[in-house]
């Protein structure tokens, strides 16, 4: 549960705006926040609820308000019922949070649909911006953190309009073409609305040079990308062990089995490419590019929200002895991801309150492909995060708040 010392004097009421608000991860985030607020569950999995993070004045559960965009119309309550049937949300919790789910539903708006939208992307962005500004005003929020939890998109090749903000905004006004993928349009709208942006997916999002230019212009922080929840988490813990003990890794093969919406999306090789690249990047950084590292993602529909990852590591020991390590990880990906989303919302809000801008490299701890940080060793990332929270704590105790401002 949130601690009394979390006075949040420097952060205040904070909105969490979820892109993909009716998806499995978002529904788990919302259910978890409502359950935490009501004292129904423990704070298991929440990094910001353990020392030294719990000593920082982060927004409390009562100070967090959730809204979002989605292009599907399945009611949030129905989605959580499905998660409950799958064993993810306890039935007793579902009964207690139903009214809260209905209240959040009133703050979910229709998002940008690339194939159904008519008109320019500039017009679509204005609608998204208006939703964010309205949400912030109606709930008297000091800031809104936008977090992308939508389905993974295919990689997007860089074009001229992606390189420069002025060129991008000219291209966005053209009704005959779509220059930005949905994740990047969401990032553009968030920044234009004065909102920090977090990308929990491997999609293009805020990584385009023009959007980084916009973030700098607005003085906004951002973080990403691709939340580190399961198999990659284990890899960033175990790979440094081999290096530290001078054991030569020859190959590291992995297979992921999953169902649900993610399984269906990633069954398409074009969409899976972003995820596979993100998962492989950290291993290459930790062990070198000469390690054979095949990785597969297979859609197994009956598994639903459960994901199983199997890894086979072949390595050499002293005198060339051939050895292997095999490991299996099975769990609810949404359950692993949801507390990290809440952590990231609180920490990004605090960073915004202290006037930080640009990539929050100190949040590498949470991501497979961290922006603003090349460190992939999990223990080092944890130390960097702990050091950073101490500076946040100091700054929030004596730094004036920086409220979000819309400037078009």
Give the neighbour order of strands across the main sheet: 3-2-1-4-5-6-11
Proportion of residues in helical segments: 40-55%
Q: Give a short account of the largest sheet.
A: 7 strands, parallel
Domain module count? 2
- CATH architecture annotation of the largest domain: 3-Layer(aba) Sandwich
Family: Belongs to the myo-inositol 1-phosphate synthase family.
Keywords: Isomerase
Organism: Actinoalloteichus hymeniacidonis
InterPro entries: Myo-inos-1-P_Synthase (IPR002587), Myo-inos-1-P_Synthase_GAPDH (IPR013021), NAD(P)-bd_dom_sf (IPR036291)
Describe how the helices and strands are arranged.
Elements: E1 14-19, H1 24-37, E2 64-70, H2 76-85, H3 91-105, E3 108-110, H4 121-138, E4 143-148, H5 160-163, H6 165-172, H7 182-192, E5 197-199, H8 209-218, E6 221-224, H9 231-244, E7 248-258, H10 260-266, H11 269-287, E8 295-299, E9 306-316, E10 322-332, H12 333-353, E11 358-359, H13 378-398
Parallel strand pairs: 1-2, 1-4, 2-3, 4-5, 5-6, 6-11, 7-8
Antiparallel strand pairs: 7-9, 9-10
Helix pairs in contact: 1-2, 1-3, 1-12, 2-3, 4-7, 6-8, 7-8, 9-11
In short:
This protein folds into 2 domains: about 15-225 and about 335-400, NAD(P)-binding Rossmann-like Domain (Rossmann fold), CATH 3.40.50; about 230-330, Dihydrodipicolinate Reductase, domain 2 (2-Layer Sandwich), CATH 3.30.360. Helices cover about 40% and strands about 15% of the residues.
């Amino acid at each position: 549960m949130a601690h009394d010392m979390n006075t949040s004097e420097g952060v205040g009421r904070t909105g969490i705006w979820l892109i993909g608000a009716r998806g499995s991860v978002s529904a788990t985030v919302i259910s978890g926040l409502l359950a935490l607020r009501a004292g129904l569950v423990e704070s298991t999995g929440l990094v910001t609820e353990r020392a030294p993070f719990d000593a920082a004045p982060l927004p409390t559960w009562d100070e967090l308000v959730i809204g979002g965009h989605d292009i599907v119309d399945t009611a949030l309550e129905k989605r959580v019922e499905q998660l409950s049937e799958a064993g993810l949300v306890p039935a007793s919790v579902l009964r207690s949070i139903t009214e809260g789910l209905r209240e959040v539903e009133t703050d979910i708006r229709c998002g940008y649909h690339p194939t159904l939208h008519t008109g320019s992307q500039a017009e679509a962005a204005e609608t998204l911006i208006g939703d964010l500004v309205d949400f912030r005003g109606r709930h008297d929020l000091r800031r809104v953190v936008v977090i992308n939890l939508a389905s993974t998109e295919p990689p997007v090749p860089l074009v001229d309009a992606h390189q420069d903000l002025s060129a991008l905004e000219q291209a966005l006004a053209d009704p005959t073409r779509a220059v930005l993928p949905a994740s990047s349009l969401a990032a553009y709208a968030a920044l234009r609305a004065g909102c920090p942006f977090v990308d929990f997916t491997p999609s293009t999002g805020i990584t385009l040079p023009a959007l980084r230019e916009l973030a700098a212009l607005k003085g906004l922080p951002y973080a990403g990308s691709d939340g580190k929840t399961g198999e990659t988490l284990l890899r960033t813990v175990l790979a440094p062990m081999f290096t530290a003990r001078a054991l030569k890794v020859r190959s590291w093969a992995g297979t992921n089995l999953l169902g649900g919406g993610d399984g269906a999306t990633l069954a398409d090789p074009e969409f899976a490419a972003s995820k596979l690249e993100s998962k492989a990047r950290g291993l290459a950084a930790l062990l070198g590019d000469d390690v054979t590292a095949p990785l597969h993602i297979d859609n197994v529909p009956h598994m639903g929200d459960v994901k199983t990852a199997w890894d086979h590591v072949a390595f050499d020991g002293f005198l060339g002895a051939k050895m292997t390590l095999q490991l299996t990880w099975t769990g609810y990906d949404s359950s692993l991801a949801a507390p990290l989303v809440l952590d990231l919302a609180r920490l990004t809000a605090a960073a915004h309150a202290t006037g930080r801008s640009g990539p929050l490299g100190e949040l590498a701890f949470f991501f497979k492909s961290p922006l603003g940080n090349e460190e992939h060793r999990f223990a080092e990332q944890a130390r960097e995060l702990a050091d950073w929270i101490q500076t946040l704590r100091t700054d929030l105790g004596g730094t004036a708040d920086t409220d979000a401002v819309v400037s078009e």
